Amino acid sequence: MIKGDKKIIKGWVFYDWANSAYNLVITAAIFPIFYENVTQDHYLKKIGQEVLNDHQRVMIDFLGLQISNATLYSYILSISFLVVAFSSPILSGIADFTGNKIRFLKFFCYLGSLSCISLYFFNPEYIELSMLSVFLASIGFWNSLVFYNAYLPEIAEPKDHDRISARGFSMGYFGSMILLVVCLVLIKVFEVNARWSFVLVGLWWAGFSQFTYFVLPQGHQVKIKREQKGRIWQGFNELKKVLKEFTQIVELKRFLLAFFFFNTGVQTVMLMATIFAKEEIVDMPDSGLIISILLIQILAALGAFTMSRLSEKIGNIKTLIFVVILWICLCICAYFTRYATQFYFLAAGVGLIMGGIQALSRSTYSKLLPETKDHTSYFSFYDVTEKVGIVVGTFFFGFIEHLTHSIRYSVLSITAFFIVGFFLLLWIPRNKKTNLSAS
Q1: Is residue 260 included in any domain, yes or no?
Q2: Are 238 and 374 in contact (CB under 8 A)?
Q3: 3-class DSSP state for residue 389?
Q4: Which of 179, 89, 87, 99 is nearest to 140 (CA)?
Q5: Domain membership flag for residue 1
């Protein structure tokens, strides 16, 4: 594989275009609103009310338990991320051993896209089966990113990682925004059932990813002795070897620890923002919520490139410290946000820094990696850190809501993750390697 090949880089970037439809339509925009509406309608019909009373929560019977719809949603996501966290290191070791990342990427892409299509049949009467589609779609999306991200250090030189990573996220934001607009036109203008949006996401994801599969090579293969057998066993051995190397790199260890905390905050906010707005913003119509999400997408693309340019001037770590401070301020502001106009300004702020911190975190980690062919195994640690963080964050969010009966306190509590991440970023050694400017 020749680093810097424009066709391969374009193919890699295009997967962001394909998969980000899930992140926007399913996790951020249409499905959370759909989920809130159908579960609320089912609950009101069950208890014989027309509208919810003040501070009344929508309760769902799930596996014999009474649980609020917001808490159930956060718990299902938490469990899916836990599955990803445990499975991806083993699968990554196997992928490095066989040198066939593309096969794993395809499998999880198709699992996620088919699960999105199956959301068309979502029915609160069969909530356990319906939430299984949410669960599997999440596993497909996040596990596919392990193998996708692992290609970055193989296709580009470290000096280009920030720019290419930002380009990927920006392509994802624009692509998913186009599909969201198409879905909104179908729903609002042609009065098509919102369920068809989930089908379109699955087709978009699987369809546009074909260009990526056409140009991306299989990936580096780790050479082993012919007599060694057993892919799962070799996957464990590969992971063990990488773990031993990983523990000897101080900068990488400390960055990943900081990443665990600040990214926990970022991902939890992104996953639960729509639920928060739906329940806590008093004058927010569904159309206004969609507009705010589109605003986030537009500004996120701009923010990704802005943070990439800033990192060229002051370095990756300093840029991340600056962005984490902004996240702390936004979480505090969210606690006091009660009206739609305020929420639009909040969404604009989130958009400007959301894309930047995601793109910069991915490229910073890739720059800190040693010279190796075990990129998938190394990125599995990045992915496990991210997913365990999301498990902690979404569970913590749901647990605080369960204790306090208020999502506002859940949002405010997320600031703790950003504060810890801020101090851990300061703990990373200052040297030429961790300055990480593009120059």
Answers
A1: yes
A2: yes
A3: helix
A4: 87
A5: no
| Position 197, amino acid | S
Is residue 234 situated within a structural domain? yes
pLDDT average per 10 residues of sequence, the chain (439 residues): 82 92 88 91 89 81 87 86 82 72 92 97 94 96 88 83 83 88 91 95 96 78 45 61 77 90 89 79 80 82 84 89 94 91 90 85 85 70 81 83 84 92 90 52
C-alpha 279/C-alpha 270 separation (Å) is 15
Q: Among positive and negative, which fits the CA dihedral 21, 24, 27, 30? A: negative
Token representation of residue 380: 């599995």
Number of domains in the chain: 1
- Whether 238 and 222 have beta carbons less than 8 Å apart is answered as yes
| pTM over the 0.85 mark | no
Residue in the block written with tokens 């970023």 = 425
Q: Report if residue 364 sits inside a domain.
A: yes
**Other Cβ atoms closer than 10 A to 126:** 11
Q: State which residues form the domain around 408.
A: 6-435
Residue appearing with tokens 């949410």: 134
CATH number for the domain including 214? 1.20.1250.20
Angle at 124 between CA 119 and CA 125, to 5 degrees: 120
For position 174, what pLDDT does the model report? Answer: 85
Exposed / middle / buried, residue 399 (Cβ in 10 Å: 0-12, 13-18, 19+): middle
